[in-house]
Structures are given as C-alpha cells and as structure tokens.
C-alpha cells in the first residue's frame, strides 16, 4: 500500500522549503477535495503532502494598490461571503456559491481549483474574465503570470514542480462594469459544470458597451475568451438583436474551436442561452443573481 506523510506549513517560506526538500516528493495540500479524492482512484505519486491551508499570507482577501488580492488558500465559502469579492469580483463570488455543497465549499480553495485545472473548474472563467494574475513562489524566487496563461490544457498548468500559488491579484474593475457567472450542470444543485461562462460588461455614459469580456469554460478544453464576441459587442447599445447576434457568433466560435462532435447541438444551444442571459444580466440596471 502506498503511504505518504503530512507536514503543515506556517508560512510561505516554510511551505516552499518543504516542497523543495530533495529527500521527499512533496505536493501542496489545501482543502484536499481534489487531491484526496484522486488518490482513491490511483496510488499517489508523492511521498509527502504539505498543508498550506493555514498559511496566513495565503488566506487574505484585501484591496491593495488598486488591486483585489485573494490568497490561494481562501475557500469558496470565504469567497462567496466576502464583501470585497462580491463588490469587485462579482462573478467570482457567484461562481463560489455554486461549488459543491457546504462541506466542499468550506474546504475547497481557489488555488486548488486553478492548480487542478479541471475542465469544469468554476473559478477559472471568472479569474480569466477579471484579468487575474497568479503569483507563484518557489525556493528559486517569485514570479507571476496571467491565469489565462497558467492553464495549458485540461489538468495541466505551467506550475513547476515544488512551486506554490500564493495569491491572485485582480485589477479593480471600473465602477460601470458588471460581471456575472453562469453555470449549467446535470442537476439543479451541487453539480459540476457541464458548461460555464463568465462575462464582464462596462458601458459608457451614453449606454453603449465600452468594454466586454466573455469567457467560456468546460465545453472548451481550457476556459478562454471569445474575443470575436467581445469585439462584436463593443460600441453597441444593448438590445435583444445584439444579444442574439452575439449568441450566434459564440456558437460559431465554439464549433471553430472544438470542431463538431456528438454533443455539438446541445453545447451550442446551451452556450447561446448562457450568452443571452449573461448579456441581459450585465446590462441590466443592477446585477441579477446567477442561475445554476
Ligand atoms: C463532491 C465534490 C464537488 C465538487 N464540486 C465542484 C464544483 O462545483 N466546481 C468546481 O470547480 N470544482 C468542484 N469540485 C472540485 C474541487 O472541490 C475544487 O477543484 C477545489 O477548488 C480544489 O481545491 P482544494 O483546496 O480542495 O485542492 P486540493 O485537493 O488540496 O489540491 C488540488 C491540487 O492542487 C494542488 N494545490 C493546492 N493548492 C495549491 C497551491 N496553493 N499552489 C499550488 N498547487 C496547489 C494540489 O497539490 C493538488 O494537486 C468538487 C469536488 C468534490 C469532491
């Protein structure tokens, strides 16, 4: 039987030192909702887990120098309940509210979700939509990169062995920007995404769309912006016709990205509906809550 040991880190420095110990093959452990589930499916390839859940620097949610700073070990419950996240990263707070049941939401963390990089990761579209950067640390030093560039493929990231995500930074959105997260699953509640989407729309004084971000997840291998839809929206006044055109363009973009397959008809129908709902929500007088 495979065995591994457990070590708890009390600081980022201690965590990266433990992760670089040449005598062990160590991996970070946060909530364990992916890691501990996965070792039931296949024997672990590591010899030690380094618990980073209680590292103070990785648990912050604060505004610093016009950026929202969110520690990688912040749980979904903490994200959903944070007034700062609700205000400055609305779609991320909404996504957090849809993850798992209370037990998973209390344990699962933002950093674990991004490091796992599952196709259905619900935090990924909001972070890409909000231009988040991931801040990484190892004994070699610190670096940061956009979350959109961190994830390479399903379950594959640019994280180096023994590298830790310490926190994420998100530029504070302009006051006119509204964001939303939408998700479709196989069940009504506590379900993994079958498709998900985050959108952020800003409008100028005349009501025209001035900035647009639309990120699709799950039905594409890696969550990504649909820039052709964004450019269609910019400069336009919101209208049902514009939303329908955006939905059609998103559906075309999906087929262009992933080709046609057995689920294409369903996926394009779902995507069109999500795009229209997201655009309605982000151009409404006040944000509407997400639907699952
Ligand atoms: C019943 C159930 C329901 C779920 N529902 C959802 C859902 O609705 N939506 C969704 O997106 N996910 C869902 N998940 C998946 C899971 O909860 C999330 O992906 C969660 O965010 C993982 O975080 P964690 O802290 O538990 O990570 P862990 O399991 O501790 O770690 C996951 C991976 O990330 C690495 N890691 C963790 N923290 C860091 C870090 N700071 N830096 C570098 N690497 C790190 C670990 O080494 C490991 O490889 C569900 C899981 C379960 C079991």
Give structural notes.
With 292 residues, the chain is α+β, with helices and mostly antiparallel strands. The protein is built from twelve helices and 14 strands. The protein has a five-stranded antiparallel sheet with strand order 4-5-10-6-7. β2, α2 (35-41) and β3 (48-51) form a beta-alpha-beta unit. The protein is globular and about 60 Å long. The N and C termini lie far apart (40 Å). The model has no long low-confidence stretch (mean pLDDT 94). Flavin-adenine dinucleotide binds next to β2, α2, α6, α7 and β10.
Supply the key terms.
292 residues, Uridine Diphospho-n-acetylenolpyruvylglucosamine Reductase, domain 2, binds flavin-adenine dinucleotide, alpha+beta, Enolase-like, domain 1, 4-stranded antiparallel sheet
The dominant shape is globular
Low-confidence stretches: none
Number of domains: 3
Q: What class would the helix/strand composition place it in? A: alpha+beta
Order of helices and strands: EHEHEEEHHHHHHEEHEEEEEEEHHH
Number of helices: 12
Q: What is the arithmetic mean of pLDDT?
A: 94
Per DSSP E runs of 2 or more residues, the count of β-strands stands at 14
């Amino acid at each position: 039987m495979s065995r591994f040991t457990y070590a708890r880190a009390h600081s980022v420095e201690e965590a990266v030192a433990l992760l670089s110990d040449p005598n062990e093959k160590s991996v970070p452990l946060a909530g364990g909702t992916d890691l501990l589930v996965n070792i039931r499916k296949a024997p672990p390839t590591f010899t030690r887990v380094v618990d980073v859940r209680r590292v103070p620097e990785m648990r912050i949610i604060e505004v610093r120098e016009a950026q929202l700073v969110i520690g990688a070990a912040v749980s979904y419950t903490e994200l959903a309940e944070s007034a700062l996240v609700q205000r400055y990263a609305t779609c991320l707070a909404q996504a957090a509210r849809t993850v798992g049941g209370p037990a998973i939401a209390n344990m699962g963390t933002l950093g674990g979700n991004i490091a796992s990089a599952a196709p259905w990761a619900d935090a990924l579209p909001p972070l890409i939509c909000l231009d988040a950067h991931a801040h990484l640390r190892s004994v070699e030093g610190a670096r940061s990169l956009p979350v959109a560039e961190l994830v390479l493929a399903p379950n594959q990231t640019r994280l180096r062995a023994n590298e830790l995500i310490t926190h994420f930074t998100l530029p504070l959105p302009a006051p006119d920007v509204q964001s939303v997260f939408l998700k479709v699953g196989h069940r009504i509640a506590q379900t993994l995404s079958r498709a998900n989407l985050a959108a952020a729309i800003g409008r100028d004084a005349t009501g025209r769309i001035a900035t647009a971000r639309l990120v699709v997840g799950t039905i594409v291998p890696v969550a990504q912006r649909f820039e052709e839809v964004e450019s269609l929206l910019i400069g336009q006044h919101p209208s049902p016709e514009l939303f329908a055109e955006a939905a059609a363009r998103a559906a075309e973009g999906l087929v262009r990205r992933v080709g046609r397959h057995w689920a294409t008809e369903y996926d394009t129908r779902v995507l069109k509906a999500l795009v229209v709902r997201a655009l309605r929500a982000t151009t409404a007088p006040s944000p509407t809550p997400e639907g699952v």
